[in-house]
Amino acid sequence: MTSRWLIVILVGMISLLLIIVKVEANLNSLRYGHGAILINKKMYIYGGRKVNSTGDPYEMVNTNLINEFIILDVSKSFKTDNPPWVVNNNNVNNPYLFNYGITSNGDDLMILFGGISSNPDSSILWYCHTNSTLELQPSTVNNEEIPSRTLFGGMTSDINNTYIIGGADPLTPSSPSQGIITIGLSSIESDIAISSFIRANVASYDHTATLLDGKVYIIGGVHNDVEYVDMSSIGVYNTKDSTWITWRANGDIPDGRRAHRAIGYDNIIIIHGGFGIEDNVNVDRNDLFKLDVSSLTWGKLDIAGQDPGARYSHTFTLVGNHIIGTYGLSTTNASLSNIFILDLNTLSWSNEYNPVSKNSSSSKLLLIVWAIIGRSRTRKIVTQE
Ligand SMILES: *[C@@H]1O[C@H](CO)[C@@H](O)[C@H](O)[C@H]1NC(C)=O
Ligand SMILES: *[C@@H]1O[C@H](CO)[C@@H](O)[C@H](O)[C@H]1NC(C)=O
Ligand SMILES: *[C@@H]1O[C@H](CO)[C@@H](O)[C@H](O)[C@H]1NC(C)=O
Ligand SMILES: *[C@@H]1O[C@H](CO)[C@@H](O)[C@H](O)[C@H]1NC(C)=O
Ligand SMILES: *[C@@H]1O[C@H](CO)[C@@H](O)[C@H](O)[C@H]1NC(C)=O
């Protein structure tokens, strides 16, 4: 654990000194700490750090940061053995970044914040209008007290603002940032983006952040190098009144984890993967849980089919009634896939993606499935008690 953490610090420091090694585009190359976002029926996958094998992902001969832009058209069906994704590396000034945050305003704006960059002087905030260009523009935040963030794990936006909650300072990573940054999206393209910093007892990083109905739910992560956040403790930032509170969830509580990923819709958040610690040994997680935020109940999800294997620092993106995952790391599995799909209609892993509009009848069906799973879990827990 400690050594893994030290290495993350090292990555931060070494990256300040490194000369960029240009890495050839190869969609089968493993990577982690990249980001993915769905914008207008395209999934944009950006940056990260390439690794040779899962054997020693932290070797520091070179950091192999990339600025590769991968575009996946999700308006059409595809199979995972031949996804129709294309690489766009036309913009040489796009930053080499990993462990950063990615979000969108719900239209065509893609926004990146923080992370570890190969260029310490580069901006901490970037944006582009994906309808017209994939050239990222640097932006400046108004408040000098707003530091960069790494491992903050999830960044989320509504149409007006981007929210960055907790996280770690790239240079002093074991002290989590005790606060919430809000960046006004309408100002992002002006010379100075207007942002505010609210002190709050967030105290974690490498968690996930999911926005549902005006509330950002913070799940998992670590308080410091060795202390995992109790998964029954859910941090909630209410964007309407700027309050931060901690809620207590019940049900089938997942094991502590970091570098996991989350998606949310309706009243449901689904988390996947990550890694945790058991008997002082790092354990990669290969499980999924759902949190019903209306009843604050956790339930384990049993997904049929061949799973993609334990992993962390991957991406996990809700696309209609599917979740599309990409890349990531595992210390226990050398055969990680570059893309994998969870079909929410059938609750199974799938090697096929079919775009379906998430209409009311299908989402009702989905809710019934969740409700059945949720109830049987609850019953099990009740009888155990
Ligand atoms: C992978 O390993 C080979 C041989 O050790 C090395 O030449 C290459 O640069 C490495 N690539 C990455 C992405 O680390
Ligand atoms: C971007 O394109 C989508 C359609 O693909 C359109 O709905 C949207 O209004 C466009 N946004 C901007 C800012 O041009
Ligand atoms: C966005 O800002 C407008 C104007 O201030 C406000 O009416 C609207 O409720 C805001 N939307 C969200 C999601 O905060
Ligand atoms: C490794 O991942 C593959 C899928 O990529 C999976 O089939 C296999 O079960 C995993 N092995 C272990 C030991 O987790
Ligand atoms: C709505 O969803 C159902 C079930 O998934 C599907 O059969 C139907 O074709 C969908 N309707 C539309 C208009 O997309």
Automatic annotation (TrEMBL):
<dbReference type="InterPro" id="IPR015915">
    <property type="entry name" value="Kelch-typ_b-propeller"/>
</dbReference>
<keyword id="KW-0732">Signal</keyword>
<keyword id="KW-0880">Kelch repeat</keyword>
<keyword id="KW-0677">Repeat</keyword>
<protein>
    <recommendedName>
        <fullName>Galactose oxidase</fullName>
    </recommendedName>
</protein>
<feature type="signal peptide">
    <location>
        <begin position="1"/>
        <end position="25"/>
    </location>
</feature>
<dbReference type="Pfam" id="PF24681">
    <property type="entry name" value="Kelch_KLHDC2_KLHL20_DRC7"/>
</dbReference>
